[in-house]
Each structure stands twice: as C-alpha cells, then as structure tokens.
C-alpha cells in the first residue's frame, strides 16, 4: 500500500477499500488522486517487513480491554514481568501501542529513557536483562504531551513499531493496546497477519458495564480471527494489606467475568485482587513482584501466567504455521 501523506477526513472509507477515492467523504480529500488510482489497494509491503522482523518471536500476544480504567496496562506489565522473572532463559518484550495514552514507561520505571537507533533498527529499552520495552512514550517530548493523530499517521507509526524494533530473539512479545477496538487494533492485526498472532488476553473488571464492552472485544477477535487465550478479571476484590479481609469494591451483579466467559465459551484465566500498594508501585515505576512478593495479587498472577504459558503451547499445536 502506498503511503498516505496527508490527513484523511474523519469518514474515510479506508484506503484499501473498493470505494477508496470514490466515496462522498473523499471529495476534497488531499489524497483523492492517489486513492482513486488504486495504488493504495496494493498489498502493503509493511506486512512482509513485519513478518521478517518478528520471525524470531515465538509468541505474539495482544492485551485488550473493552473499557479504559480496568487496569489493562498494569496487568500487561505484571504478566510481562512475571513471565520474564519466572524463567530467566526466556526473553519478553512489551510493545506499547496505546498511542494516545502510553503508560508503560511510567509503570515500568523507564520514564525519560531515550530510544537509540542502530543499523539494525530501534533498540528497545531494557527493564531487566530479559525484559525490553518499546513505547510511543519514549518519542514524546514530555509525558503530558498530547498525541493528536488520525488513522493513517497512527497506522504508519504502528507499522514502524512492528517492523523496525530490533527485539532480537523473543519468547513473548506482548502488545499493550488502547481500550476498545480502534485504528491501532486494526493496524496491528493487519500487519501481524503475515506472521500470526498467538492470541489475545482480555482484561476487564467485574461490573456489568465493563463486561458489556468485553463482549464487543470478543466479537472483534472472532471477526478478525484472533484466538482468544482468555479473560482476566482485574480488581475482583479489595484485600486489606493489614488485616487481609476482603471487600467487593466493584460488585459483580451479573456473576462477573467468570460467568460471562462460560456463557461466551472463552477461557477464564483468573482474577487479580485490588491491592492499593500495586497502584503505588506502578506510579513509582517499581517492580511489585519483588516489592510485595507475598501479596495475594502475586499468587493470582502465578496461576494466570501458568495458564497463559499453557494456552500458548496449545495454540502452537493448533496452528503450527504461526510459528514457522
Ligand atoms: S481519498 Fe483516500 S484517504 Fe481520502 S477519504 Fe477517500 S479513501 Fe480516505
């Protein structure tokens, strides 16, 4: 697909659609002559570049959430840290494609780090010897800078992230995506289709309002053929750090994520309790696993990560082409 150099109108039909350059929204668009020529419907060379770059990545996982505020980025960082810490021979990378709200640099204690470019691509920032991170947050001048980009520009950035980061050999590449199903998801899934996506982990909280949006996320995965590894329920209960008593902060009026998972025939990976010290660790960029090793959150994470590892193995058996 040829690059779209200028911003497209809000109701752009999609530069690869049959009506590209011909729809009513295209009238007056600066890209109209390029789109109507058919050049944008050619196979995107970025797909082959991404396939080549990620050929030494064993498992590519998407972390999704229907709503914002359910702790998706926190869960991404915990799962990544856990996978890296539980086996030092395994290499884990995090790609933060939440372009409008990148939070991994803060959560992983890498705010202010710089990206270096070498002949083999962008070097990710190393959080641990076997845990690396790439985020749009590293390319912004300040954490409070707003990113106001429309679809084509986001698409270009995701293509660069997927094709130009020099990850080396990875066992797990975990993509932290924005809430909902937006340009970032469509771009990532279309660029990854040549190399295969192992599966999606869907994060939610117990209330019905969050679960309704999770149903849309599950529907999205099914429509674009992404295997669903399972659902993680975050902030299931509050555990008092002193007395260890529990309380439901977000009541599961309809049975929570476990009931919904059964109903929709997807695996329920487990619940992560709300620990106020976790929020503090994330704000300060500290490693919760080593700061609070006895927290119920860590033991919940142990079960969830073991299940994720097992599900990845099952997907490998189901779909050997993903790992060619
Ligand atoms: S001309 Fe191309 S970029 Fe512009 S609105 Fe139409 S399809 Fe989208």
TrEMBL record:
InterPro entries in alphabetical order: Mrp-like_CS, Mrp/NBP35_ATP-bd, NUBP1/Nbp35, P-loop_NTPase, YlxH/NBP35
PROSITE patterns per the UniProt record, alphabetical: MRP
Cofactor(s) for this UniProt protein: [4Fe-4S] cluster
Cofactor: binding details: Binds 4 [4Fe-4S] clusters per heterotetramer. Contains two stable clusters in the N-termini of NUBP1 and two labile, bridging clusters between subunits of the NUBP1-NUBP2 heterotetramer.
Signal peptide location: none
SUPFAM superfamilies the record matches: P-loop containing nucleoside triphosphate hydrolases
Residues involved in [4Fe-4S] cluster 1 binding: 12, 26, 29, 35
Transmembrane segments: none
Residues reported to bind [4Fe-4S] cluster 2: 240, 243
Keywords: 4Fe-4S, ATP-binding, Cytoplasm, Iron, Iron-sulfur, Metal-binding, Nucleotide-binding
Localization per Swiss-Prot or TrEMBL: Cytoplasm; Nucleus
Main location: cytoplasm
Gene3D superfamilies, alphabetized: P-loop containing nucleotide triphosphate hydrolases (3.40.50.300)
Cellular component GO terms, alphabetical: cytosol; nucleus
Biological process per Gene Ontology, one example term: iron-sulfur cluster assembly
UniProt-recorded Gene Ontology molecular function terms: 4 iron, 4 sulfur cluster binding; ATP binding; ATP-dependent FeS chaperone activity; metal ion binding
Residues at which ATP binds: 66-73
Similarity comment: family membership: Belongs to the Mrp/NBP35 ATP-binding proteins family. NUBP1/NBP35 subfamily.
Subunit (UniProt): Heterotetramer of 2 NUBP1 and 2 NUBP2 chains.
Described purpose of this protein according to its UniProt entry: Component of the cytosolic iron-sulfur (Fe/S) protein assembly (CIA) machinery. Required for maturation of extramitochondrial Fe-S proteins. The NUBP1-NUBP2 heterotetramer forms a Fe-S scaffold complex, mediating the de novo assembly of an Fe-S cluster and its transfer to target apoproteins. Implicated in the regulation of centrosome duplication. Negatively regulates cilium formation and structure.
Protein name as annotated: Cytosolic Fe-S cluster assembly factor NUBP1 homolog
Species this protein is from: Dinoponera quadriceps
């Amino acid at each position: 697909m040829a690059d779209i150099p200028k911003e497209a109108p809000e109701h752009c039909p999609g530069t690869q659609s049959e009506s590209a350059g011909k729809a009513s929204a295209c009238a007056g668009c600066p890209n109209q002559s390029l789109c109507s020529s058919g050049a944008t419907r050619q196979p995107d060379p970025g797909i082959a570049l991404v396939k080549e770059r990620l050929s030494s990545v064993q498992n590519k996982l998407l972390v999704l959430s229907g709503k914002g505020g359910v702790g998706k980025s926190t869960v991404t960082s915990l799962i990544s840290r856990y996978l890296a810490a539980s086996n030092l021979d395994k290499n884990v990378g995090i790609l933060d494609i939440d372009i409008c709200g990148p939070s991994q640099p803060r959560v992983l204690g890498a705010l202010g780090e710089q990206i270096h470019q070498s002949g083999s691509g962008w070097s990710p920032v190393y959080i641990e010897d076997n845990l690396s991170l790439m985020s749009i947050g590293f390319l912004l001048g300040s954490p409070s800078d707003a990113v106001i980009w429309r679809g084509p520009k986001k698409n270009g950035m995701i293509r660069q992230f997927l094709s130009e980061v020099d990850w080396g050999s990875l066992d797990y590449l975990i993509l932290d995506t924005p809430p909902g199903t937006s340009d970032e998801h469509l771009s990532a899934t279309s660029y990854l289709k040549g190399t295969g996506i192992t599966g999606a982990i869907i994060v939610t909280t117990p209330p019905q309002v969050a679960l309704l949006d999770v149903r849309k996320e599950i529907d999205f995965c099914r429509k674009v053929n992404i295997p669903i590894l399972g659902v993680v329920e975050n902030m299931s209960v509050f555990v008092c750090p002193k007395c260890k008593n529990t309380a439901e902060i977000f009541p599961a009026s309809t049975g929570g994520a476990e009931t919904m998972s059964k109903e929709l025939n997807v695996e329920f990976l487990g619940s992560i309790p709300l620990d106020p010290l976790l929020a503090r660790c994330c704000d300060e960029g500290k490693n919760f696993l080593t700061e609070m090793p006895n927290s119920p959150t860590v033991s919940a994470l142990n079960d969830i990560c073991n299940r994720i590892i097992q599900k990845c193995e099952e997907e490998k058996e189901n779909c050997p082409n993903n790992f060619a």
